[in-house]
Design goal:
Two copies of one chain form a homodimer.
Chain A: H1 23-41, H2 44-53, E1 58-59, H3 60-67, H4 71-83, E2 87-92, E3 95-100, H5 103-119, H6 121-130, H7 144-148, E4 155-158, H8 162-167, E5 174-175, H9 178-183, H10 186-193, E6 200-203, H11 211-222, E7 227-228, H12 232-238
Parallel strand pairs in A: 4-5, 4-6, 6-7
Antiparallel strand pairs in A: 1-3, 2-3
The structure holds a DNA duplex.
Chain lengths: ~250, ~250
DNA sequence: GGTATATTCAATGCCGCGGTTGAATAACGG
DNA sequence: CCGTTATTCAACCGCGGCATTGAATATACC
């Protein structure tokens, strides 16, 4: 019945296109505003900047460097984000420090990512690849909730740059930047010797952080069943699990 | 220490801008794809189309009419949404029926809206206005969870056009399109006489649906403590509460 | 097979975003 | 008060999104 019929699905009565006088304008205004907000998210550079800010507050120059942007360009993109209140800026002397305007922004970022991954084949592949599933070595990724229940009993390895580790990391984690691991594989042995547990879990920034992918094979030589934390530091923080600061166990 | 100092926050070691050879490209690709996905959301017309599709599947022509767009324009915007897998299309004879690609899309829409409302003063105002708080009359808005607990004991009034009511509505709701209410206020009395409860709750499409705002004062003349369901049908459905179809109690 | 209708495709023109560059502003240090 | 440095502003330009129009495609009815 539904398939074959060609009955016009509905008569073209005015429905709700009203004379477009009153409240219709309000709805249009709201949607325009909402679209501006969404548009602030809808640029690869800004998504990356937000991903970096999820690791902790940073200055413009640091963000530009980490994102591979020119300073002026980074500043402009940060300006767009600030105008839509996705980030906040505070001046500290000579530097301006940007930070996420709230944990809900991080959540939104991750919701966007998850929805996109569910609906785009390519993004799903990339997420699997970032999780190290294709790279060989190591066990399956670990959800934040799973890891939270095992906190004291595994060796937590933070693969992010030391600056981001210092700005906040999982409780008890040890810093071993992927860059250093690649340059001095023996650093892993030094770190592992001080610790007991045979189980290790590594993590990096977030869903599309590829630090883990390159590091995983190296880690797996010492910890055969090492797993990556799904969603990285970003997902951990977004789900409300505790974050530790300072406490220098830096590599 | 943090405030006064002018020590460069971090040395400009390469950090993670790596030689930009390998995985950096993968991350850039992922973010570009994610940005395309987000950009599909970031247009007022497409946000409106998605909001309409949240009420139920519709044809291109119906969507164009309800959104106040030309048919070609609506088709193009729907094409953008379809390419990013936010909506699906199925041909039924002469007509093409579009629908949301999943409930997670509806969720994403609402998450975006909530985050934006939290961070934009203007959007927060508009949301309050749509909820009828400024329009006078009636009680405070009702959360879906609250309403779910009172389902059999209140008169549920669906203010959306009959077509959308037919495509799905809250269990036991009665259809009283805002347009009809405005044209024949006595229709409310007819509907109320058949029912017992002194409490009534009305709802419309979603967060920025202004049907409720104009209808609320009229409703309040008969039901002094009438409230609007916060987030409308969209929020109800997104939170997983049951939806009823057909069962013609249409006004 | 021919006609009518719904939808999509293609082409055009315009506006605004985004990158780049260079100058202006704000703060620190002497 | 002047030089230095971080950041932002302003102006330029090019690309791509978006609206509009008209043609092409797909399907149904006769």
């Amino acid at each position: 019945m539904t398939a074959g019929g060609s009955v016009p699905p509905e008569t073209s009565r005015s429905e709700t296109t009203l004379p477009a006088g009153g409240p219709g304008g309000a709805e249009a205004g709201a949607l325009a505003e909402l679209a501006r907000f969404a548009r602030a998210l809808a640029h690869p550079h800004r998504l990356r900047l937000l991903g970096l800010l999820a690791q902790g507050p940073r200055t413009v120059e640091a963000l530009a460097g980490a994102a591979g942007l020119g300073v002026a360009s980074a500043s402009q993109h940060l300006g767009v984000l600030r105008r839509q209140r996705l980030v906040e800026a505070e001046r500290h002397g000579l530097y301006v420090e940007y930070r996420l305007a709230g944990d809900d922004i991080l959540n939104l970022w991750l919701e966007l990512q998850k929805a996109a991954a569910r609906h785009s084949r390519r993004l799903a592949e990339l997420a699997r690849e970032a999780a190290g599933l294709e790279a060989g070595g190591g066990g399956p990724p670990l959800e934040a909730a799973e890891l939270a229940g095992r906190l004291g009993r595994v060796l937590l390895i933070d693969l992010r740059p030391a600056v981001e580790f210092a700005a906040g990391h999982l409780p008890g984690a040890r810093s071993l930047p992927a860059e250093e691991l690649a340059a001095r594989p023996e650093a892993l042995e030094e770190l592992a010797r001080q610790e007991g547990p045979a189980q290790a879990v590594a993590y990096c920034r977030g869903p599309y952080c590829f630090l883990g992918r390159s590091a995983l094979p190296l880690l797996a030589r010492r910890f055969p069943r090492v797993g990556l934390l799904a969603g990285g530091f970003a997902a951990w923080k977004a789900e409300g699990y505790p974050v530790e600061r300072g406490a220098g166990t830096a590599g």
